[in-house]
Specification:
The complex is a heterodimer of chains A (about 350) and B (about 270). By secondary structure, chain A is an alpha+beta fold. Chain A folds into two domains: about 230 residues, 3-Layer(aba) Sandwich (Rossmann fold), CATH 3.40.50; about 120 residues, OB fold (Dihydrolipoamide Acetyltransferase, E2P), CATH 2.40.50.100. Chain A is built from eight helices and 20 strands. In chain A, the strands form four sheets. Chain A has a six-stranded mixed β-sheet with strand order 6-7-8-3-9-10, sandwiched between helices. In chain A, a hairpin with a 3-residue loop joins strand 12 and strand 13. In chain A, helix 2 packs across helix 3. The model of chain A has no long low-confidence stretch (mean pLDDT about 90). Chain B is mainly α. Helices cover about 75% and strands about 0% of the residues of chain B. Chain B is globular. The relative contact order of chain B is 0.14. The chains are: A alpha+beta (about 350), B mainly alpha (about 270). The interface between A and B is medium-sized, with 31 and 26 residues.
Chain lengths: ~350, ~270
């Protein structure tokens, strides 16, 4: 039995179906992420787990027990809000010990846990400060310490890194992973930032229009998206309209107008004649002047249409026959740009027969 | 460049002084003549405490002042409790009618409120006009003011802190006691002081609801100036002014340090 079971949960707000028949199982000790664009229902789902909102249909079970009749303050879980929601009239210590005060924890125990918590989030020197005297990162750590101090079964994090600037966010991501591993508590993290989700999570549920599109480990989600939405939402991907010529247990052969044939890994339920999309990540596309890509199973000639130098990598957009555009990503492993293709250069692009995938629709 | 700036500075100062003079000169004159050694408010003769001594021995005046203080204390205390509750309810529930009902007395012309309260007390409640009717009337018009101030104080706060309190194990009551109330306390105190000052200097509504038996300070002053503005009126006005000023200073000093910071509000990190 999973620690948290979400069973066919639906939530309507007026005519809008915010969460539509969602079922998820979250295991104890997992770092689980709800990822989706704004309006996809991820925050509504989180609020229902926290108890601020109730499902119109379906159940949320914690260790097998339905939470429907448990008010927010009685649920053994805490939320770290996007705004951190620190109490402005309380010091760091008063904020962190608030849950213990509410549960009438003996002073001895409170002092001990407070000390641990302050050390854990490195706030010992800030104990008597008020929230307005803290930096964004420090506020976030106070919110984490406050959420963890009475050892809940679950910690819900609602866009908890969104308010931090990019540099700090990376640091905090590492801290968050370490913290979760140290405390061993289940984290349910809500975000719209896919790189954050990939970096932090054990498993990710991708949500779209109130539904769960796919639940998987980050690498599976990125490498084997189940549909066009997931493929497009996570990372960058090339998408080319294609028709199935032949589908076998080892591969599919696809016809692409203007390009000819592509061989791609098999998709069990693809049938000959089906119209769909061939998709491939830019970093799987090789690009070269000469014949190197030509040794690959799938290779095509084109011209460099544009290039984006991004420091660590360069992104080339190559125009193939019939106006098909494909993006190829080249790491700049030597100083400057690795290979100096310029706009207008004739190049070859290619990829391995086991790269890319056919998607329905 | 500097010259021009300086001249504009002078112009601004002159304009500002003129406005302040317009606002405060009449008050200053009232205060000054309360120390004037003459029966007439006509010309300055010399300094005296005489009118304050007269005041201290004017039993009717003392009684009226006592009544006013009593009414203001009782009505503002009750209005503060009820107004705070109304403010919280208006903030929490999207109930337009409640909002309308609580705030209408604030916008209603006083004369209208006075007349309708008079009719209500006499014809519906069959009440003998007196202390009780004045207190009830003052509570009625004060609640709205307190509710407005409390609602503004609540609206300025990040709404997720109340959810955070519940989430961290606080019951509804604990959330109110440890989070909501301390944060809106400055608003509650400001609203209470406002209700107090409104009550102590109210004339119109008190005039309609007082009946024959009870006299308040504003009613007493009014009945005195029907004959002539004596320096005794100046003296009592000065004391009333002093009291109001003290209350205003108290109200502004009360706001705790953390609430003077902008970034406390709306969850701005």
């Amino acid at each position: 039995m999973a620690q948290l079971e979400i069973k066919n949960v639906t939530r309507r707000i007026g005519d809008f179906v915010a969460v539509n028949d969602v079922s998820l199982n979250i295991e104890a000790g997992e770092f689980f992420t709800l990822l989706g664009p704004s309006g996809s229902g991820k925050t509504t789902l989180l609020r229902m787990i926290a108890g601020f909102d109730l499902p119109d249909a379906g159940q949320i079970l914690l260790n097998g027990k339905d939470l429907a009749d448990t008010s927010p303050e009685k649920r053994p879980l805490h939320t770290v809000f996007q705004s951190y929601a620190l109490f402005p009239h309380m010091t760091v210590v008063e904020n962190i010990t608030f849950p213990l005060k509410m549960s009438r924890c003996p002073p001895e125990e409170t002092r001990k846990r407070l000390q641990e918590a302050l050390e854990q989030v490195r706030l010992t020197g800030k104990a008597e400060k008020y929230p307005h005297e803290l930096s964004g990162g420090e506020k976030q750590r106070v919110a984490l310490a406050r959420g963890l101090i009475n050892r809940p079964r679950l910690l819900l994090l609602d866009e908890s890194l969104a308010a931090l600037d990019a540099k700090l966010r990376e640091e905090v991501q590492v801290e968050l992973i370490n913290l979760q591993r140290d405390v061993g508590i289940t984290f349910i993290f809500v975000t719209h930032a896919q790189t954050e989700a990939l970096a932090l999570s054990h498993r990710i549920a991708v949500m779209n229009q109130g539904r769960v599109e796919q639940v998987d480990e980050p690498s599976k989600l990125y490498g084997f998206p189940r549909n066009r939405f997931v493929a497009d939402f996570i990372g960058h991907i090339n998408m080319i309209a294609a028709q199935v010529i032949e589908s076998t247990h080892s591969h599919v052969r696809l016809a692409v107008p203007g390009l000819g044939e592509i061989t791609a890994p098999s998709l069990p339920d693809a049938s000959a004649g089906e119209q769909g999309t061939f998709s491939i990540r830019p970093e799987q596309v090789r690009i070269g002047m000469h014949d190197e890509p030509a040794e690959l199973k799938n290779h095509f000639a084109g011209t460099v249409h544009s290039l984006l130098y991004q420091g660590d990598v360069s992104v080339y957009r190559v125009k193939l026959a019939d106006g098909v555009m494909i993006e190829a990503l080249l790491p700049n492993s030597t100083p400057g740009r690795a290979e100096l293709f310029e706009v207008g250069d004739a190049v070859k692009v290619g990829w391995r027969h086991d790269a890319g995938m056919f998607l329905h629709g | 460049m500097y010259k021009g700036t300086r001249r504009r500075g002078m112009e601004l100062w002159t304009a500002a002084l003129a406005v302040y003079a317009f606002l405060y000169l009449p008050l200053a004159i009232v205060v000054a003549y309360s120390f004037n050694d003459s029966r007439l408010n006509a010309e300055w003769v010399g300094f005296t405490w005489h009118w304050y001594q007269v005041l201290l021995h004017d039993e009717d005046m003392l009684l009226a002042a006592g009544n006013s203080l009593f009414i203001a204390l009782v009505s503002s205390s009750i209005a503060t409790v009820l107004g705070t509750m109304a403010g919280i309810a208006i903030h929490r529930y999207d109930f337009k009618l409640l909002n309308f009902m609580v705030l209408t007395p604030v916008a209603m012309p006083e004369i209208l409120l006075g007349v309708s309260l008079l009719l209500f007390f006499i014809q519906v409640l069959n009440l003998t006009l007196g202390m009780l009717s004045i207190v009830l009337a003052h509570i009625t018009f004060s609640i709205g003011f307190v509710a407005i101030v409390v609602r503004v104080a609540l609206a300025a706060l990040d709404p997720s802190i109340f959810e955070a309190a519940r989430d961290l194990g606080a019951s509804q009551w604990q959330t109110f006691r440890h989070v909501t109330f301390p944060l809106i306390l400055p608003g509650v105190v400001a609203g209470g002081l406002m209700a107090f000052t409104l009550s102590i200097d109210d004339f119109v509504i008190t005039f309609f609801t007082a009946g024959a038996g009870v006299q308040t300070l504003p009613l007493r002053i009014y009945s005195m100036i029907k004959i002539a503005v004596t320096p005794e009126v100046n003296a009592v006005s000065t004391l009333l002014m002093l009291l109001t000023l003290t209350l205003i200073l108290l109200a502004s000093r009360f706001a705790p340090d953390f609430l003077k910071r902008q970034d406390v509000f709306k969850g701005k990190a």
